[in-house]
Design a protein that fits this description.
Elements (H helix, E strand, L loop, with lengths): L3 H20 L1 H30 L9 H7 L6 H8 L4 E2 L8 E6 L5 E7 L2 E8 L6
Helix pairs in contact: 1-2, 2-4
């Protein structure tokens, strides 16, 4: 069970009740304005990330080794797309869990990332074999 589906509505309810009791309808309007501002900030960030990602090829990153060093478990897919400035090449079927994406650099190194419920759970760096 995803606790965010329960905690976010409870958190909103915990804000609505004191806003109504303290200031009535004006408190609800201020709270609504604040929530709208928060939603617009997140939407703007999402659009900026997607605009930057649209300018680069799918699955390409400047340095797969640097991406591997910067990844942390638990970050969401949008954060990884913002770091790479590229959409990952999807290796899994749409709508299946885990979601698997691949990013490659010009040198042939690759980072394969697995996301469960939109959060990074594991990743693997693969470097090309050196020529003998």
């Amino acid at each position: 069970m995803n606790w965010r589906n329960v905690l976010i509505p409870l958190g909103l309810l915990a804000l609505v009740i004191p806003a109504w009791r303290a200031y009535g309808m004006q408190g609800l309007l201020v709270l609504g304005g604040g929530l709208l501002m928060w939603a617009l900030l997140h939407f703007t960030r999402l659009m900026n990330v997607m605009q930057k990602a649209a300018k680069n090829p799918i699955g390409h990153v400047a340095s797969a080794v640097m991406l591997n060093a910067r990844l942390k478990p638990g970050v969401n897919l949008m954060h990884v797309v913002a770091m790479t400035r590229s959409l990952g090449q999807a290796l899994s079927q749409p709508g299946s869990e885990p979601e698997i994406y691949l990013w490659c650099d010009a040198g042939g190194s690759q980072v394969r990332c697995e996301f469960m419920q939109g959060r990074l759970v594991r990743w693997q760096l693969q470097r090309p074999q050196p020529a003998p």
